[in-house]
Every structure is written in structure tokens, then in C-alpha cells.
Model the fold of this input.
Amino acid sequence: MFKPNFFIIPLALVHNKKIRPLDCIVYGIIYWYHSLKDGVCFAGNPAIAEIANASTRGVQNSLTNLERNGYIKR
Done:
């Protein structure tokens, strides 16, 4: 599996009290996939979880929180 060497995470996301640390990592992974091709992230939750070293349930919760707070659209 091809993995990123670093993530780009906006400071506003890091400072948002509603956003957890895993949410920031998931956002960074989504942004990385988004930047690779076509401007869309097609990675599934298991691929994101593997890169984030997290559970798929944790990724699901992060995606929900990021969407709820307006950082991503699904």
C-alpha cells in the first residue's frame, strides 16, 4: 500500500474544540487522497484506518464528525 510521508492539516481544524486528534489525521489522509487524482477521495474506511493506525469504527466516527462540522462532504 502506498502511504503518505506527511499530512496537510489546516490550523483551524486543529484549534476547533469539536474536532478530535483522530479527526485531524483522517482529514489529512482524505486531503492526501484527494490531491492524488481527480480531486476526489475514493479510499474506503479500512484503507484510511490502516494509514491512521486506527479502527474502522474510529474512522467512521471521525468522518461523521468532520461532515457534521462542515469539513468534508460525503
The chain has a mean pLDDT of 94. DSSP finds four helices and no strands in the chain. The CA atoms of residues 7 and 29 lie 7 Å apart. The longest helix spans residues 21-36.
